[in-house]
Amino acid sequence: MAEFKAQTPCAGLLPVTVGDLRLTEVVPGRMTSLAPYRGRVAALSEVMQAAHGVAWPEPGRITGQAAARALWFGREMALLIGPDSDESLAAHAALTDQTDAWAVVHLEGRQAAEVLARLCPLDLREAVFAPGHTARTDVAHMAGSVSRLGPQTWQIMVFRSMATTLVHEVEIAMARVAARQNSLM
Amino acid sequence: MRIEGKGLIDRTRPVSFHFDGHSYKGFAGDTLASALLANGVRMVARSFKYHRPRGVMTAGSEEPNALVTVGRGAAQEPNLRATTVEMHEGLWAQSQNRWPTLGLDLLAVNDLAAPFLGAGFYYKTFMWPRAFWERVYEPLIRRAAGLGALSGEAAEDRYERAYAHCDVLVIGAGPAGLMAARAAAEAGADVILAEEDTRLGGRLLAESEEVDGLAGVDWVDEIAAELAAMPNVRIMTRMAVTGVYDGGTYGALERLAPGVAQRPHAPKGCFWRIVARRAVLAAGALERAIAFPNNDRPGVMMAGAVRAYANRWGVAPGQSTVVFGNNDSAHRTVADLQAAGVHVAALIDARPYARSDLDVPFYPGAQVCGTSGRRGLEAVTLATARGEDRIAADCLAISGGWNPTVHLACHMGARPTWDAARQAFLPPENAVPGMRVAGAAAGAFSTRACLESGLVAGAAVAVDLGFRAPDLAAPRGAEASYDIFPLWQVPGKGRAWLDFQNDVTVKDVVQAAAENFRSVEHMKRYTTQGMAPDQGKNSNVAALAVLADATGQGIAETGTTTFRPPYVPVPIAALGAGGKGKGFAPERRTTSHAESIARGAPMIEAGLWYRPSYFPQKGESHWRQSCDREVAMVRGSVGICDVSTLGKIDVQGPDAARFLDFVYTNMFSTLKVGRVRYGLMLREDGHVMDDGTCARMGETHFVMTTTTAAAGQVMRHLEFVSQVLRPEWDVRIVSVTEQWAQFAVAGPQARAVLNGMLEAPIDDAAFPYMACGEVRIGGVAARLFRISFSGEHAYEIAVPARYGAALFGALVKHAEEMGGGAYGLEALNVLRIEKGFITHAEIHGRVTAFDIGMQGMMSAKKDFIGKAAATRPGLMDPERERMVGLKPVGAVKELLAGAHIFDEHAEAVSDNDQGYVTSACFSPTLGHVTGIGFLRRGPERMGERVRVVDHLRKSETVCEVTPLVVFDPEGGRLRG
Question: Which of B592, B610, B509, B502 is nearest to B550 (CA)?
Fold first, then answer.
């Protein structure tokens, strides 16, 4: 039979641009949750370094760069984003494919933090939540993940099934923020 | 009328607005109140109870009288204070609480009945006959007395909610707040300066005085510009901090400028949650009135408000003004009005020792004891040592002293303390962790003292946070004496108002005390003093002083009522912003959503998930037709159903098997790799939590499924067990619900459909009932489980979610080629009821394994959660309500879930209750209605006839008790 066609979580919904604010879907290659077994964090971090060039992230932190990132993803859990997880990791952690489980979007723009202030209760001031910081948090009443990738670049993740709601909520917040600023809206 | 050359309004930008159908002109920078006064409109409202003419009394959010409705149609917003409504072109406002018009209010007849409408009137009068209260009295009273009305249309207002974080929140931007913000910011703290007014400055905008040699307003502009240029300062005007909550959290309502709010997509307002490590409360003070007979006529205003209208808005509220006070601020009112060229007819100072150099008729030691005028003030009567005197005046400016705005300092339960020297309640010390109070809110009543205390407070909170003390000196501010003389009420004939908003008089408070409502909290509830939109901002202190006098207690002993949020009224639309319609809860959509919608399937909400109810086909006009067809389709050929919403949990690790043994009642460590087992999970209290299948994918890797409804609860439970009860076990739990799109393929043709699609076909030997394994389909690695929730030969196949839509489409297409197709939740439910399979309709939280006949699944060979409780005699008692099947056998065939079961000839009352129905449907397979219920000693009563009554829906059915599994009880079909 014919090969199945893949569909991304936000297919047909993104990108959206409002003023200088931009919301785009990101298809980040493979995403694997890493849940280290008892006492294996250090060992896991070593094999992660060797295989993918990223260290185990401390709580609330991101390691690595665009090609391979490890995102802190909750208690004793990280999400390896980018490469297929190397087999050597399996000896130290439970690995679970989560590539399809999350809708991943990037929010960019001068006022991106203002948009997030309408969606998420966290303190996102740069001194507190700098590039390389991440949190599991409430995103417009969805359990999500918010990461700061750059001064004005944010990654937001929610369950794949909630992609429509995510785009809807972020779009509204973007429009509200832009309308306050720009009289031409 | 306007005073030429005065005020901060922009005379180059005239605007027109409407009030009660008349068109008027105002200027940018006006409030509705200042513009109405400028146009000579004195009567702007009718009072709450007696419908007395009322005028603007204050110049701020504490306004008790001038409540108006702004906007029309769905955008109509009632009970706005005209003193805070920002002027803009086309503003449309109406007065309230009058019928038919403000000028001719027929309900003013209430005023004549005033002797009967005093405090406690409702409680005493409308007690009898009892039924009349709800039907007659209350609607009448509500019509006659009250506030503005809603439109009745769905509100279209856009509000938003947002969060803000800072080191220091400064509440109020008068001289104290500006200095506090400056000091904290200079020290390096992140500062939010919140000001409820449209611009910074506080009282400096309303007074004519100098700061550091500059006009007050110019000094404000200078410091505002400095603050605006600092990257660590966020200035938020039009932002009223409304409440103080735990952990340094503050609620605040922001109203956007009309020009911004009118833009497409712009919000009208925003409800902020501000988290601040420290706060400085610099909310200023509110001037209070003095109670004397007929002190409520339009034209009677607070002295500070009269100065504000003259200095800030260039408006003289009257042509001839009398000023009455008990402190020095009365004198500056005279000076300001005279400087503006407004005639002052008299200065009446209640202090016998007062002196004045002003060129004005001066009456020390005198009191105003009455007023006259029909729709507005025409004359003032004063009592002096020589007797009474009348002075013609259309404006009376009163100052009874100042009440520090201590509200926010008291939101966490502390009470303010009475200061006899200043005759004022001062904020309690350390009443809110991390908050300091500065300026007039702390009892500093001169500009000099406000500037200094603001600087001290701002520096102190910054140092407290570890910042270096700023090198700042307080600017020179005006020194002002206060010298207050206690005067709360002037005796005399006629009603003397205390609470203008609720029409509460001195007599009402005295009456409350006489009837033994002597505590201030009781007095409040008996008289309604201090309720409604203004929450007694104007009246609380004066009312409790009168109460103190009536009871013979001191003011300090009498104390204040409780201060509660919000400080100013907050629209529910702002609190609930974003929660309307689709914003109420997130929507979870399966990968087959678009295809199901395209096929016309109505969606049903299952928790947050949207699932197809049924898939209507041509000619089907009722859901039952579609449902019956889909059931027959599954029993006869094959059906496809999206089951992705069921919880899927990856359980991995060396201790995974023993972990499952511990959370399930039955054994999982014995399960072979490549096999699936049905499992039952109990709560610690021995009652059923959830059920589902669990597949062993590898030696240390299981995939558990949960019901859709309990997916979150089970995940949480497993985390609890792993983190708290068995932390020593090496097991890792991850939800994979969203990773996999999973579909049931059920029916005699299920395998044929799959074999038409799988890369390697399967057969019974390789894939028997309860087998699982990896397969490939459509070029994708998939997981296949041979499990059944329909009683048919069935599979569930899972692919990574990105391929879900493709797989669903292909499965349905193949099924349709074999006479099958997609089926929805209705058919799924019928199929499982026919088989006696449970859902959360049955395991609703108070049933045991014994109740559902699964006590045999409670392994004797191991411990598991809930075992101790579940095996107690009370939970294994044969008398319990236990699960059975039900079949209507009388003339009535209707069987409703929720109905209760009684013995056939017993009266259907709760004493005779024998159980209840949990699920019911028409079974097209059997050709009759069938149901599931819980019945006392149920399994022992097979064949017995029972009476099933639904009292709510007025339905009664005679049923026979049947075995649970009514279709294919041997289960031959699912082994295929």
Answer: B509
